[in-house]
Amino acid sequence: MTRFVNIMSDRPLTIEEVEGEVWERSFTQSPPTEAEERKFVVETVFHRALE
């Protein structure tokens, strides 16, 4: 099953911070079933420069 999570931040996030946000949002929205394996891959990152 594919899940998408949008993360917005006012500052650049480290990989650890991104992983933490994804895990937190994924598990609160749909707790894993027993023996379910979850893998997450960061697919796209957008950075908006300040004007």
Explain the overall architecture.
This protein has 51 residues and is mainly α. The protein is 29% helix and 0% strand. The protein has one helix and no strands. It has one helix at residues 15-29. The termini are far apart. The model has no long low-confidence stretch (mean pLDDT 76).
Number of helices: 1
Number of strands: 0
| Euclidean distance between termini CA atoms | 39 Å
Number of domains: 1
Radius of gyration: 13 Å
Provide mean pLDDT, rounded. Answer: 76
What is the overall silhouette? elongated
Low-confidence stretches: none
- What percent of residues are in strands? under 5%
H/E element order:
H
What composes the largest sheet? none
Helical proportion, percent range: 25-40%
Counting helices, strands and paired strands, the structural category is: mainly alpha
